[in-house]
Design a protein that fits this description.
Elements: E1 4-11, H1 16-28, E2 35-42, H2 47-50, E3 58-62, H3 86-89, E4 96-100, E5 104-106, H4 111-114, E6 123-125, H5 135-149, E7 163-167, H6 168-173, H7 176-186, H8 194-202, E8 207-209, H9 229-236, E9 240-242, H10 257-267, H11 280-283, H12 287-299, H13 304-318
Parallel strand pairs: 1-2, 1-4, 2-3, 6-8
Antiparallel strand pairs: 4-7, 5-9, 6-7
Helix pairs in contact: 7-8
Length: 323
């Protein structure tokens, strides 16, 4: 009987389309004979919209009211913490799961990743790597991590939380969910990347590193000529593309080759007439104005050239960079 690979994702209503696109990318990149089962941590997903993808292999977990006391806001809503709950939510018969942020596109079968040797560790993740001219901008937060949490600055790697291979029996026996939640409540003032900071603080030195190809970030795809061979190879042939920090934006169009691939993938999907990622600019507007503009943008989706011209106009009126 073929092995079933268990994948968990967390989403709210605003990220219904990215969730659908991520699931579709996993199914399309699956090797022959690979079976996937998806576990959705649901805090408001529009299931009717999601099912345009025809998915049948999904288990749902209603987490809308869980962990709402943890610090959140802006770019970090409550669903970022729901991954902590997976060992408690998933049945005991499931011993391993891959957690994925839904702002990712999978380009390779995940079987090899699922079978990663974890040894005595309970989690595997990709070490934090900031490339090109963003190293200073993001690096300052990384360098401050040991000081913020009172840890020795001994060169221990810091890991992304966007992709986690979880060994669930070990996480349960080590009470990792409880420890992560307690640490979040205790360190509220120290958090910059909340779930990620806590994961690294609680499991410092106890995470198995994964190759960079499993967390390729388009924002960092420029100026790779001076980066390591691993980085150049990962960006040339990524296994997972993660739209961290900068989402694909219909008002600018693709800003690099990886975003070009995303736009082609989205436009071939059942959600091609829906805005793929929430527009930050709309969230800052009064609701009536935001709703009107969203309706205009949606109507113009078949005409990307017009959308980009409109984006330039709005950007000029705001006098700032459009995101």
């Amino acid at each position: 009987m073929p092995e079933t690979i268990h994948i968990a994702l967390s989403a709210n209503q605003a990220f219904t389309v990215p969730l659908g696109l991520c699931l579709r990318s996993i199914m399309q990149s699956a090797a022959e004979g690979t079976q996937y089962h998806f576990h959705i941590l649901d805090s408001g997903v529009d299931r009717k919209v999601l099912q345009l993808g025809g998915f049948t292999n999904i288990s749902w977990y209603d987490v809308a009211d869980k962990l709402r006391d943890l610090p959140c806001g802006g770019r970090f809503p409550t669903p970022i913490y729901h991954r902590f709950l997976l060992p408690q939510l998933l049945p005991d018969t499931i011993e391993r799961v891959i957690y994925l942020d839904c702002d990712t596109v999978v380009r390779r079968d995940l079987g090899e990743l699922y079978r990663t040797e974890l040894g005595e560790t309970a989690i595997a993740a990709v070490p934090w790597v900031v490339l090109g001219h963003y190293a200073e901008e993001f690096g300052q937060h990384l360098r401050s991590f040991p000081r913020r949490f009172g840890l020795a600055d001994d060169g221990t790697p810091y890991f992304y939380s966007s992709l986690l291979v979880m060994q669930l029996p070990a996480m349960r026996s080590m009470q990792i969910p409880q420890r992560l939640i307690a640490a979040t409540r205790h360190h509220t003032r120290e958090l910059i990347w909340p779930d990620q900071d806590v994961l690294n603080a609680v499991l410092r030195g106890q995470i198995t590193p994964l190759p960079l190809e499993y967390n390729v970030i388009p924002l960092f795809s420029e100026q790779l000529e001076n980066e390591s061979q691993e980085a150049r190879a990962a960006y040339a042939a990524p296994a997972i593309v993660h739209f961290a920090a900068m989402k694909p934006n219909i008002l600018t169009g693709p800003r690099n080759a990886l975003e070009q691939d995303f736009f082609r993938f989205w436009q071939s999907s059942p959600w091609k007439r829906r805005i793929p990622y929430p527009l930050i600019s709309l969230s800052r507007m009064p609701r009536p104005a935001a709703a009107l503009l969203k309706a205009v943008f949606t109507a113009l989706l078949p005409f990307p050239g017009l959308l980009r011209q409109l984006g330039k106009l709005l950007n000029a009126l705001r006098g700032g960079q459009h995101r």
